[in-house]
Specification:
single chain; 11 helices; 75% helix; globular; membrane; DUF5058 family protein
């Protein structure tokens, strides 16, 4: 990582800016939690019931959060300590962040996000690209209700083509993201990582039918398995 870029990405100013944004989100969460607690008491729930819900929700939120931690570790070497923390704490995912950041970096002539030794102005461009890319999601409050009604009307008939539309859209999006790695037959690391992750995910899915507790761990274990395979293949190639 370029020294100037590293200084900016890991500076106290960046920590303050990112921390301030996350603080706003935490305050919003606290406000909604307080309102939900009051409403639950009003409709007849006891404090003991609510504390049980809070405890169980806290425990069951830890495992689904593991992929987020792994995603942070993936983005940390390229984007510094604080910006990935902000992105994954507020809104974002490793897939989107990596894709958008790569697009910004390659537009400057670099080969990829991982290999680029870029300057602070390129880092600033990355921040703008990944942030503006999700900016329109704030408009969902205006259009999501109408969209949801339309989707419900389309998917009401389970035997119609409309019922398949959401799944088709999701699979199309995933295919678009995965295609560059699948067609690059010379990239042994990517292909082996995808293959191992897919096999582990299928195995975990089958095992979770017998042991329900494994379902929450499936995605995390498949990611870790893929990362381990990538490290193994990389070391063998070198």
């Amino acid at each position: 990582m370029n020294k100037q870029y590293s200084f900016v990405a890991n500076s106290s100013v960046m920590f303050f800016i990112c921390g301030l944004a996350i603080l706003v989100v935490l305050v919003q969460a606290a406000i909604f939690f307080r309102a939900a607690w009051k409403e639950a008491i009003r409709i007849g729930f006891t404090k003991a019931d609510l504390l049980k819900v809070v405890k169980s929700s806290t425990v069951f939120s830890i495992v689904p959060s593991l992929p987020i931690i792994i995603s942070y570790m993936i983005l940390l070497p390229a984007l510094g300590k604080y910006f990935p923390w902000l992105r994954l704490s507020v809104i974002g995912s490793a897939t989107y962040e990596t894709m958008a950041a790569n697009m910004a970096v390659t537009s400057y002539g670099f080969s990829s996000l991982g290999s680029a030794d870029f300057s602070p102005d390129v880092f600033g461009s990355i921040m703008w690209v990944v942030t503006l890319g999700v900016f329109l999601s704030s408009m969902s409050a205006l259009v999501l209700k109408k969209y949801d009604k339309k989707m419900q009307s389309i998917t009401t008939n389970k035997e119609s083509f409309g019922a398949l539309v959401p799944n088709i859209m999701f699979l199309g999006m995933m295919a678009t993201l995965a295609a560059p790695y699948l067609v690059d037959v010379k990239n042994v690391v990517s292909l082996s990582t995808i293959a191992v992750s897919a096999v582990v995910m299928v195995l975990m899915d089958r095992m979770s039918k017998r042991w329900k507790q494994l379902k929450e761990f499936a995605f995390s274990i498949s990611m870790i398995s893929g990362m381990a395979m990538a490290c193994l293949v990389t070391s063998l190639i070198k």
